[in-house]
């Protein structure tokens, strides 16, 4: 394959004119159609398949896709395929299939045209090939445009600054509602059923019982009066007193007085050196 | 800290968007606050913010998944200098397959092969799938039950598109075809 | 685009630092530019930038590995709201034990078991103690000297109560619950 590849019509060649395209004489072969044989492998790699190769041949020869001269195109395509086979290049079956298709179209175009013109248009054997070529070309263009769109990591980067976080264990949240529900579950099924109503007053006493126990941390006797803070008002004093009585009743504290009018001392009944 | 002023709400929005590793929709941005500021206010502040960032190397954009900050294209030449590895350059086979899936989804591998006129290698589809740009969204009820490929939201986001309708328009092949009135029917049995 | 002014160099630095979440050393930042601006200038501009970002939700900080932008801790409360994960929940045993301690304090483990009708595992009490919600305020003077559990100030604070008396009175709950008549599986055996 030493001669330049030529897609121009092979008939009717006047001096200097090597062909005619749509009535216009062609004087020069398109230079870029000549591809040295040793570049075949590169070419095969460069094309994405038979449609791509065909499209290249057509576009380079400046042929209207909608009016493909089948004879020269087929000839040229076959030359490529032959050259590739000659060089023992692994030729995808797609290329051979396309060769067969081209040959079939060419032979059908040689058949006598039907008499009615409108039918002739409808039955153009090239129609399917043209459709595929145009669709493929559209895909090629779309691919190029997609590739041209700004793309993350190639043309821009996402912003994502470091999120500073105190390392805190996520602890379960408990709402008052949760506590209510929990208590109700207990109340509904426990022996507590009969006396589970707890009034605010009762809670207040129990809270003060806890407060007094906290004050009594440790082993020592504490002066009775020191458990009470007059600044908190009468109500608080009364509740504190009730709490102390309740603590005594539940035998959680011990109250001692050595003699009448002597100082009263309070001490935790467990008498231990406190917890913790 | 409870945001009281509009300015503070804006700061919180900005902070959340700067910190976001993915686009944040307005509905999520509203959840940032104890008291929902409403979508109108959030949208207004986002537009405000986008304006505040004019002239900076970073811009606030709206993508398929929501709002996010991204660096401006002009700065990539600098950022590239710090990169350890080049971003992948995709082969024509990959790009053409992506184009077919993007514009004609959902399509099977067979559809792609019909259009490209060659066998589509498994690697090509794997490349697109591992980038998270396409996935199988169903199966066509034909022999072999071939998978139907479609593009993902990540594809739109990575290309800065809000929806498929923002894809560059296809060259108007249909119009050309109509002009010549080519038949699409079967070949006659000659 | 070639940065010519100091201002432009600063923009590039800012953009590069916003684009990544890991710290960038000054030596790397110098590589952003075709012409090395020198470490003195880069450092000066970084300090400038840090000042520019005062009052924002994001700050420029210097860490062991270099410079990076990071969100200010005050904004964590907002950002946390965007996280999808649900907060963990305490088991029924923990909640019931807590309720008993809250309403009946001071109580021993034995009291709790009497009321709940089941053994209270050590883990349950440990959970509440390590949360700082209950502690032992004394010991009952009975065999075994069991610890007396009560709720702490932290418990009140965490639940937004000023005093135990602000706990919902149970008579009221009972009324409401009876009205609602929750679909209970276990009916009281009375």
Automatic annotation (TrEMBL), chains B, C:
GO terms for biological process: cell division; chromosome separation. SUPFAM superfamilies: Winged helix' DNA-binding domain (SSF46785). This is SMC-Scp complex subunit ScpB. InterPro entries: ScpB_csome_segregation, WH-like_DNA-bd_sf, WH_DNA-bd_sf. It comes from Zoogloea oleivorans. It holds the Pfam family SMC_ScpB. Keywords: Cell cycle, Cell division, Chromosome partition, Cytoplasm.
């Amino acid at each position: 394959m030493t001669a330049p590849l030529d897609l121009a019509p092979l008939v009717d060649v006047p001096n200097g004119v090597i062909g005619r395209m749509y009535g216009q004489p062609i004087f020069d072969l398109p230079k870029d159609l000549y591809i040295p044989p040793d570049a075949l492998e590169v070419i095969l790699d460069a094309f994405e398949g038979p449609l791509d190769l065909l499209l290249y041949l057509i576009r380079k020869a400046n042929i209207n896709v909608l009016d493909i001269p089948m004879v020269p195109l087929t000839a040229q395509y076959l030359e490529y395929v032959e050259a590739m086979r000659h060089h023992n290049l692994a030729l995808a079956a797609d290329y051979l299939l396309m060769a067969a298709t081209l040959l079939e179209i060419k032979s059908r175009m040689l058949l006598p045209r039907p008499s009615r013109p409108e039918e002739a248009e409808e039955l153009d054997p090239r129609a399917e090939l043209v459709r595929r070529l145009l669709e493929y070309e559209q895909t090629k263009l779309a691919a190029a445009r997609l590739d041209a769109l700004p793309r993350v990591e190639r043309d821009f980067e996402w912003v994502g600054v470091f999120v500073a976080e105190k390392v805190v264990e996520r602890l379960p949240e408990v709402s008052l509602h949760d506590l209510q529900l929990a208590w109700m579950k207990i109340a509904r099924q426990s022996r507590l059923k009969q006396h589970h109503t707890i009034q605010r007053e009762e809670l207040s006493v129990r809270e003060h019982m806890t407060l007094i126990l906290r004050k009594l941390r440790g082993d020592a006797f504490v002066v009775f009066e020191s458990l009470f803070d007059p600044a908190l008002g009468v109500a608080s004093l009364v509740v504190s007193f009730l709490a102390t009585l309740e603590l005594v009743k539940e035998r959680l504290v011990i109250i001692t007085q050595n003699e009448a009018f002597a100082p009263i001392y309070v001490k935790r009944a467990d008498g231990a050196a406190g917890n913790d | 800290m409870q945001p009281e002023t509009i300015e503070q709400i804006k700061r919180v929005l900005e902070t959340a968007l700067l910190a976001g590793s993915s686009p944040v929709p307005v509905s999520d941005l509203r959840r940032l606050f104890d008291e929902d500021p409403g979508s109108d206010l959030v949208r207004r502040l986002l537009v405000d913010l986008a304006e505040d960032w004019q002239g900076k190397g970073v811009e606030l954009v709206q993508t398929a998944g929501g709002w996010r900050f991204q660096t401006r294209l002009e700065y990539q030449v600098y950022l590239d200098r710090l990169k350890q590895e080049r971003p992948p350059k995709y082969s024509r086979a990959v790009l053409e397959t992506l184009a077919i899936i993007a514009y004609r989804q959902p399509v099977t591998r067979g559809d792609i092969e019909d259009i490209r006129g060659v066998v589509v290698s498994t690697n090509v589809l794997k490349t697109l799938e591992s980038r998270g740009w396409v996935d199988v969204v169903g199966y066509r009820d034909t022999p072999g039950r071939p998978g139907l490929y479609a593009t993902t939201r990540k594809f739109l986001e990575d290309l800065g598109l809000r929806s498929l309708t923002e894809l560059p328009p296809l060259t108007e092949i249909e119009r050309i075809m109509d002009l010549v009135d080519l038949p699409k029917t079967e070949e006659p049995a000659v």
